[in-house]
From TrEMBL:
It is a multi-pass membrane protein. This is Chitin synthase export chaperone. The keyword Ribonucleoprotein does not apply. It comes from Geotrichum candidum. GO terms for cellular component: endoplasmic reticulum membrane. PANTHER family: CHITIN SYNTHASE EXPORT CHAPERONE. Its main location: endoplasmic reticulum.
Length: 383
């Protein structure tokens, strides 16, 4: 597939898995063998050099590969960032699950589950565990298609969650949840098919539809989400702390994208090829997801009446035990006060009366209980 203008600029600045597929289809013969006539050609875009080969476009400066257990691993620093992001998303999912009464709880669970799946797929694709050439070329194409499909689904799901907090429809219902899941599946399937038809089947002869789906549409979804949350916090919630969380997350995300597409070569040179802009973008994306969760946590309050204690010793355990015993007609412990105790020890004794006999406490009048004598000298204050 010939490298169109937008992808030529992107691939000369960023080390993306998608760029490996650019030019691969047009430079392949009908028998599937790659024609290497253009394998050593190079081009420049905006002063940034790139290597245009038969299997894709590569930036001149990218993170060096590392040999681990006879396996070449690319983007090792970015892989470590993805591992940390995956662990962070697991913690976020666990925290979201405990907020039983929060707004759009199920929708947020779907969002972070999609982000976790995207992180794991990116960990496999970006590190080169699936080779881009040879007998694994078709598997690599579908792996990149899955990565881009999950990326589109995540951006769409984020926009959906940004709209559902306005309570235009009831959140958490089957209609809301399955509308979200169905639309995310539709977006993911559309992107997956466009990638497959472009690089595998060759039905689509231009990469422009793919550029619109992957970059233009996803950027539009993110802008809609950020705008909707700013409107919500300024005109409805009127909470500047919440607005600060939104603006901070958006700013960090923009910094990450700028580092990926504009400063990747400079970062690579300064870091001596140990990392590039993809590592910075991975860290910024992780922080942006943390701020999305933090923002959602700040605008939702948990109803303590319906809160659930996840500890083993639940405060409602005694109540449920008494109710079960009462339904079975068993003897229950009743709290009784012995006559010789002046509001002293309360003893629990078994009685066959169950709940039929009310609890009665005999308060004996003792003036010493209500009119204590003067304090002893050892308890008197020093003044």
């Amino acid at each position: 597939m010939a490298a169109d203008g937008p992808f030529r600029f992107i691939c000369t600045h960023a080390s993306l898995a998608l760029c490996t597929l650019i030019n691969a289809h047009d430079n392949s013969k009908p028998d599937g063998k790659v024609n290497s006539s253009n394998s050593n050609s190079s081009s420049s875009s905006g002063g940034a050099m790139s290597l245009v080969t038969a299997i894709g476009i590569f930036p001149v400066c990218s993170a060096r590969a590392v040999l681990v257990a006879n396996t070449i691993v690319f983007q090792l620093a970015s892989a470590l960032a993805n591992v940390v992001a995956a662990a962070m998303l697991v913690v976020v999912l666990a925290n979201v699950r405990t907020k039983y009464t929060a707004v759009a709880r199920q929708e947020m669970l779907d969002l972070f589950a999609l982000c976790l799946a995207l992180t794991l797929v990116s960990l496999v694709i970006d590190t080169g565990l699936v080779p881009a050439a040879g007998g694994w070329q078709r598997a690599y194409i579908y792996g990149v298609a899955l990565q881009l499909a999950l990326q589109s689904a995540c951006c769409w799901c984020l926009m959906f969650n940004g709209i559902v907090v306005f309570q235009l429809w009831e959140d958490g219902t089957c209609k809301s949840v399955w509308t979200l899941r169905g639309s995310c599946a539709l977006m993911a399937l559309t992107t997956f098919l466009v990638v497959a038809l472009t690089f595998d089947a060759g039905v689509i002869s231009s990469t422009l539809p793919l550029f619109i789906l992957v970059f233009v549409a996803n950027a539009l979804y993110l802008v809609i989400y950020a705008t909707s949350q700013i409107v919500l916090t300024v005109f409805i919630l009127e909470d500047m702390w919440v607005l600060g969380a939104t603006l901070l997350g958006a700013a960090v995300f923009v910094v990450g994208q700028t580092a990926l597409y504009g400063l990747s070569r400079m970062i690579c040179v300064l870091a001596r090829h140990f990392l590039d802009g993809l590592f910075v973008a991975s860290l910024c994306n992780m922080f942006a997801l943390i701020m999305v969760y933090k923002y959602w946590d700040m605008i939702t309050t948990e109803d303590l009446e319906f809160s659930v204690n996840n500890r083993e010793t639940s405060p409602w355990e005694s109540k449920s035990t008494i109710e079960r015993a009462y339904d079975q007609g068993n003897s229950l412990p009743l709290m009784q006060v012995r006559p010789e105790d002046n509001l002293g020890v309360v003893s629990a004794t078994n009685s066959q009366a169950g709940f039929k006999r009310p609890l009665h406490i005999d308060f004996q009048s003792d003036s010493s209980l209500y009119h204590p004598g003067p304090l002893s000298s050892q308890f008197r204050p020093p003044y």
